[in-house]
Write a structure and sequence with these properties.
Elements: E1 27-40, E2 43-50, E3 53-59, H1 61-68, E4 75-84, E5 92-103, H2 121-126, H3 128-131, H4 135-157, E6 161-162, E7 168-169, E8 181-184, E9 187-191, H5 196-206, E10 208-216, E11 229-238, H6 242-262, H7 277-282, E12 287-289, H8 290-299, H9 312-321, E13 325-329, E14 352-357, E15 360-367, H10 372-381, H11 390-394, E16 403-409, H12 410-417
Parallel strand pairs: 3-5, 6-10, 12-13
Antiparallel strand pairs: 1-2, 1-4, 2-3, 4-5, 7-9, 8-9, 10-11, 11-16, 13-14, 14-15, 15-16
Helix pairs in contact: 4-6
Bound molecules: aspartyl-adenosine-5'-monophosphate.
Residues 174, 194, 196, 217, 219, 226-227, 230, 232, 234, 361-366, 405-407, 409, 411-412 line the site of aspartyl-adenosine-5'-monophosphate.
C-alpha cells in the first residue's frame, strides 16, 4: 500500500530513538519534521526529527527530487529500510522508499528551531510551539513532566491524598493585595493566590493532602524569578510540625535529583560543586536560623535589625555563603502570615522555614496556628478583617488537629534543575506584567 492510501494518523511504526535497536533490513515508517536536508550529487540526506531524537535518511531518484521541494520544518512521514551508516552522528540510517508530506512549513519561520541562529527569549516565547522543536528546549519540558510524576508518586506513596481546590475564590486566601479580581456574575471574584485556607481545612478529615496547581499573583515584579501564574506544589499534614515538613521536602528534593541522575535526562549537576553526588545526597541541607543569618550578614558588612525582612541583596550575600540548598528557619513572627504558629519559648519568633537555593526562595512553610482565638488576634494584628475569614475560621471549631505544611514554587525548582536563570525558560507560556499572549 502506498503512504497516500494509508490512514496517516496510524502509520508511524517507530519513534526515532527506537530505530537503532532494529535489525538491518527492517522496514519502518517514522513521522516528524525535516530538521536538515543536504544534497550531494545523486544522494540526499534528510534529517527527520521527532520528540525522541533524529533519524538520518538517505534519498535517491524521485524521492530526492521530491525532498528538494519540501521546506524545512515541514511535517512528514517516511517509509524505508534500516541500513548501516558511515555517519559519525548516527548509528543507523534509513534508505527512503517513500516520502509523504502532511503539512508544509512556511518559508520564513519567525525563529530557527534548530538553535543554530539564536533568538532572544521574547521572540522564542512568541513562537513557543516552534521553539520546542529545539531538542535543548523540549528537554526542559520532558524533565518537567518527569519531575511532576516523581512528586506525585512520592506523596501518594507516603499517604498524602491529592486534592483539587478552587482557583476562583470569593475572598483573599492569604491577605495582602496581590490578587487578580474580576466580575463573577453579580459579585467580585478573585484568582487564588494559594490553596492555603483550603489545604488547612482539609487536614481536619483527610489528614495529609497535596495539590499541584497554578496560582496567581498580581505582583508588579519585574524579575527573573516572578511570574503572575506559577505552579505550586502544596502540602499540608495533620500532627506534623515544621521540622517534619522540612524532612519531607528535603527527602523529596534528593529523590528528584537521584531519579534524574539515574534517568536519561543528562542534567547539569555542577551545582553540587566540590562534593561527590553520593556525599551531597547523604549530607543534610543546613538549617540556619534567621538570627544566625543576621549575624552572618553583619560579618559581611550588612546591618539587619531583628524583624526586618531579608531582601534580595541580603539573600544574595547569604546565597554566596550557603551556595546550595539550605533552610532559613525561625523567622520573626511579624514577617510571617497570620496562619503561622509562634514559638512556644519566644513568641517573637515563628515555627517557619524557607528553603533556599542560594539566593532563590523555593519553598515556604511552617507549623500552623490551630487555636482559633490566637488566629483571630493574628488576623486583627495584621489589619485583616475577621469577617472575611468566617468560613475558614468555622473549621477551627470542628476539632482541628495541629498541622503543618509548605508550598514549593515548582517553576523555581525547575530553574535549579535545569540550571537556568530566568523562570520564563521553564514555563511553556509564561504570564508576567507585560506578557499575556500567546
Ligand atoms: P509563598 O507566598 O512564599 O507561600 O509561596 C510559596 C512558593 O511559591 C513560589 N512563588 C512564586 N514563584 C514564581 N512566581 C511568583 N510570583 C511566586 N510567588 C511565590 C516561591 C515560594 O517560595 N501559602 C504559602 C505556602 C505555605 O505556607 O504552605 C505561600 O503561598 O517558590
Amino acid at each position: 500500500m502506498t503512504l497516500d492510501k494509508l490512514n496517516k494518523s496510524s502509520t508511524r511504526t517507530h519513534f526515532s530513538k527506537e530505530l537503532k535497536n532494529l535489525k538491518i533490513g527492517s522496514e519502518i515508517r517514522v513521522a516528524g519534521w525535516i530538521e536538515d536536508f543536504r544534497n550531494i550529487g545523486k544522494l540526499g540526506f534528510l534529517t527527520l526529527r521527532d520528540v525522541t531524537g533524529a533519524t538520518q535518511s538517505v534519498l535517491l531518484g524521485d524521492n530526492l527530487v521530491k525532498a528538494k521541494t519540501i521546506p524545512r520544518q515541514s511535517s512528514i512521514l517516511i517509509s524505508g529500510t534500516i541500513q548501516p551508516t558511515k555517519s559519525k552522528n548516527f548509528e543507523i540510517e534509513v534508505l527512503v522508499k517513500e516520502i509523504f508530506v502532511y503539512s508544509e512549513a512556511t518559508q520564513t519561520l519567525p525563529i530557527d528551531p534548530t538553535g543554530r541562529i539564536e533568538s532572544d527569549l521574547d521572540n522564542r516565547l512568541d513562537s513557543r510551539a516552534l521553539d520546542l522543536r529545539n531538542p535543548k528546549i523540549s528537554k526542559i519540558f520532558l524533565i518537567r513532566s518527569k519531575v511532576l510524576k516523581i512528586i506525585r508518586d512520592y506523596f501518594t506513596l507516603n499517604n498524602f491524598i491529592e486534592v483539587n481546590t478552587p482557583k476562583i475564590i470569593g475572598s483573599a486566601s492569604e491577605g495582602g493585595s496581590n490578587l487578580f479580581s474580576f466580575d463573577y456574575f453579580k459579585k467580585k471574584g478573585y484568582l487564588a493566590q494559594s490553596p492555603q485556607l483550603y489545604k488547612e481545612q482539609l487536614v481536619l478529615s483527610l489528614d495529609k493532602v497535596f495539590e499541584i496547581a497554578p496560582y496567581f499573583r498580581a505582583e508588579n515584579s519585574h524579575t527573573v524569578r516572578h511570574i503572575s501564574e506559577f505552579l505550586s506544589v502544596d502540602i499540608e499534614a495533620a500532627y506534623l510540625d515544621y521540622f517534619d515538613i522540612m524532612d519531607i521536602i528535603e527527602e523529596l528534593i534528593k529523590l528528584i535529583l537521584k531519579s534524574l541522575k539515574e534517568s536519561d535526562c543528562q542534567m547539569d549537576f555542577s551545582f553540587i560543586q566540590n562534593k561527590s553526588f553520593a556525599d551531597f545526597i547523604n549530607s543534610p541541607f543546613p538549617r540556619i536560623s534567621y538570627e544566625q543569618c543576621i549575624k552572618d550578614l553583619e560579618k559581611m558588612g550588612e546591618k539587619i535589625n531583628f524583624g526586618d525582612d531579608l531582601l534580595d541583596s541580603s539573600l544574595r550575600k547569604l546565597g554566596e555563603k550557603y551556595n546550595n540548598f539550605f533552610f532559613i528557619i525561625d523567622w520573626p513572627i511579624n514577617l510571617k502570615p497570620f496562619y503561622i504558629h509562634e514559638h512556644d519559648e519566644n513568641p517573637l519568633l515563628s515555627k517557619s522555614f524557607d528553603l533556599q537555593f542560594g539566593y532563590l526562595e523555593l519553598v515556604s512553610g511552617g507549623t500552623r496556628q490551630h487555636d482559633i482565638n490566637k488566629l483571630k488576634s493574628r488576623l486583627q494584628n495584621q489589619g485583616l478583617s475577621i469577617d472575611s475569614f468566617t468560613n475558614h475560621l468555622r473549621s477551627f471549631e470542628w476539632g482541628m488537629p495541629p498541622h503543618s505544611g509548605g508550598g514549593l514554587g515548582f517553576d523555581r525548582l525547575m530553574m535549579v534543575l535545569c540550571n537556568l536563570s530566568n523562570i520564563r525558560e521553564v514555563v511553556l507560556y509564561p504570564r508576567d506584567t507585560s506578557r499575556i499572549n500567546p
